[in-house]
Amino acid sequence: MRSLHCRDAGFDCEGVIRAKSDEEVLNQAAQHAKEVHGVEATPEMQKDLQALIREE
């Protein structure tokens, strides 16, 4: 299982996104960023986020 902690991306948020693949994590992260933080996930942001994804 792959995971991304929203706090690691610089947000004051306890959100944790978990999925089977990095691609799924990034898709969910983009949706979370838009819905919760009002931020559009740019290609540059997704590249930065990918570096923060880890194995659980």
- For the record, give the distance between the C-alpha atoms at the N and C termini, rounded to a whole number: 6 Å
Helix content: 40-55%
Secondary-structure element string? EEHHE
What Rg do the Cα atoms give?
10 Å
SS strand fraction: 15-25%
Spatially, the strands of the biggest sheet line up as 2-1-3
Individual helix count: 2
Largest sheet: 3 strands, antiparallel
Low-confidence stretches: none
Identify the quaternary structure here: single chain
Q: For the residues shown, what is the average pLDDT?
A: 96
**Count of DSSP strands:** 3
Describe the SSE topology.
Blueprint: E1 2-5, E2 16-19, H1 22-37, H2 43-50, E3 54-55
Antiparallel strand pairs: 1-2, 1-3
How would you describe what is shown here?
InterPro entries: DUF1059. Helices cover about 45% and strands about 20% of the residues. The chain contains two helices and three strands, in the order ββααβ. The chain has helices spanning about 20-35, 45-50, and strands spanning about 1-5, 15-20, 55. Strands 2-1-3 form a three-stranded antiparallel sheet, with helices on one face.
Keywords:
56 residues; alpha+beta; three-stranded antiparallel sheet; globular; DUF1059
Nutshell version of this structure?
InterPro entries: DUF1059 (IPR009409). This protein is of the alpha+beta class and 56 residues long. The protein has helices at 22-37, 43-50, and strands at residues 2-5, 16-19, 54-55.
